[in-house]
Design goal:
A hairpin with a 3-residue loop joins strand 1 and strand 2. The protein is globular. The chain has one domain. The model has no long low-confidence stretch (mean pLDDT 81). The protein is an alpha+beta fold. The protein has a four-stranded antiparallel beta sheet. The chain is built from one helix and four strands.
Length: 96
C-alpha cells in the first residue's frame, strides 16, 4: 500500500489527485470512554472528490487513507454510503 501524497493548505485542508480532506476538532468529543463510539472521537475528517476524480479513484484513495491511519495505530472509521467498498467495511468492526 502507498500512502497518499497531497498538497496541504491553510485551514485544516489537504488536496490529493482524488479528494480534498477537511480536518477539524469534533465538537461532540466526550473523552472516548467507549472505543466503538466514533461519534465522540476527537477529530473529524471530511472527504470530497475533486473535479475530474472518478468514483472508483475516490473510493480507492479513501481506502488507502484509512489503511495508512490504521497502520499508524490511529482509530478511524468511515461513515458514508459506500462503506462496504472500503477495507474492513470502513473499519467499524476494528473498534468493537
Amino acid at each position: 500500500m502507498q500512502t497518499f501524497h497531497g498538497c496541504a493548505s491553510t485551514g485544516g485542508t489537504a488536496t490529493t489527485d482524488a479528494f480534498k480532506v477537511y480536518v477539524a476538532h469534533n465538537d461532540y468529543e466526550a473523552g472516548c470512554v467507549d472505543r466503538s463510539d466514533f461519534v465522540s472521537w476527537s477529530s473529524v475528517l471530511e472527504f470530497e472528490p475533486v473535479p475530474g476524480s472518478t468514483a472508483e479513484a475516490f473510493v480507492c484513495a479513501i481506502g488507502e487513507c484509512l489503511e495508512a491511519l490504521w497502520k499508524a495505530r490511529l482509530r478511524a472509521v468511515a461513515a458514508c454510503d459506500f462503506e462496504e467498498r472500503l477495507p474492513h467495511s470502513g473499519g467499524m468492526r476494528l473498534f468493537q
